[in-house]
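In response to the reviewer comment on reproducibility (Comment 2.3), we provide here a single inverse folding case reported in full, input and output, so that an independent group could reproduce the run without further information from us. The structure tokens appear first.
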């Protein structure tokens, strides 16, 4: 498994959900109690992140955490 490819796919999936919810990066950051720069980097560059951050994103976007991993890579 190519870790970098997987991490980028995860970021794209999170960004897809953000767009579907009609949220800007700033709005998502507020909902997820995160820094806007961190949200932007996660969605566009696919940074490696923690389980706690993924839980914050799941709660902030109001989606099951499994939805964050619903992608092909």
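Designed residues, in position order:
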């Amino acid at each position: 498994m190519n870790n970098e490819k997987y991490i980028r796919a995860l970021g794209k999936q999170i960004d897809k959900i953000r767009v579907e919810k009609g949220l800007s990066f700033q709005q998502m950051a507020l909902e997820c109690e995160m820094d806007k720069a961190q949200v932007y980097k996660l969605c566009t560059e696919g940074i490696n992140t923690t389980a706690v951050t993924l839980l914050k994103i799941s709660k902030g976007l109001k989606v099951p955490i499994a939805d964050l991993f619903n992608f092909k890579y």
